[in-house]
Amino acid sequence: MESDGTKYYQIGELANSLELSPRTIRYYKEIGLLDSVKRIEGTRRVYTDKDLQRLKFVKRLKYLGLTLSEMLELEDIYQIHRTNRNILPRLLELLNNYMGKIDEQIHSLNRLKEDILNYQERIHQKLNMGDARSD
Question: What is the pLDDT of residue 5?
């Protein structure tokens, strides 16, 4: 849908293009991650390319491990300074923290894998000892 040269999306179109539910989009609006929703013809909400880009960014940050509260923190920083220059150092810090958590998880998973391998080996040994006794 277009009006005065601006492309508008209904929530269903936006949701489908982003593989999000309309409920999720409304929730992001409710908590302040999406603030530029327009109304046309009185009460009908429409979304713009700016909203589309914003939601793509939110999806990307979520995929990278940021929580909604961390995204809201970044939004607060932006609202104060109106520049990404002040957001980027905090974003780097958040991503570094998340990478540290991933490293811890990898380490824990590697330990778990070792424990499973050792346990499997003990089971195989017990099974082989049982075979030897039954001969």
Answer: 66
